[in-house]
């Protein structure tokens, strides 16, 4: 079970214990793969199931099913799980043989589609973006004038230089000047961004799509 996120495992186990999930699984599975392959969201099935739902709990299950199945597909693809590994994971969280078979069939078609280099739509699944890459950081501090009467004299006294490498393998510097307070805030925001990215990688903050 260490092949996938423990958080995702918990979500799948909870779903398979929900009888309403079992009744909408086939339609939702088809809808998930359809939305992954189309350029625009296709919410027809989701809207139909929500309209037919007899309680708020069932409507919530529709949303949860969509989100968790999308997460599952993304996790399997991200970790390059093979058919046997996928079968083991799904069986251990409570999927029946029939549910596993249907998932495997659609998933293999999905992988074949996005792996086709000649398929224009496959480019939409390439998450790489040609941003400049950060390769070095340099800084220096100007001289500081101070007196016991003036606390902030020559405040913006830090020069920061970020060396980035562009798509043509050329160094492109980004230079700016800041105070110690601004530099501290920048470092704090970067640290926060790193934590959020790490958490997102573990699939812990996937938000429901309404």
TrEMBL record:
<protein>
    <recommendedName>
        <fullName>COMM domain-containing protein 3</fullName>
    </recommendedName>
</protein>
<comment type="similarity">
    <text>Belongs to the COMM domain-containing protein 3 family.</text>
</comment>
<dbReference type="Pfam" id="PF07258">
    <property type="entry name" value="COMM_domain"/>
</dbReference>
<dbReference type="InterPro" id="IPR037355">
    <property type="entry name" value="COMMD3"/>
</dbReference>
<dbReference type="InterPro" id="IPR017920">
    <property type="entry name" value="COMM"/>
</dbReference>
<feature type="domain" description="COMM">
    <location>
        <begin position="133"/>
        <end position="201"/>
    </location>
</feature>
<dbReference type="GO" id="GO:0006814">
    <property type="term" value="P:sodium ion transport"/>
</dbReference>
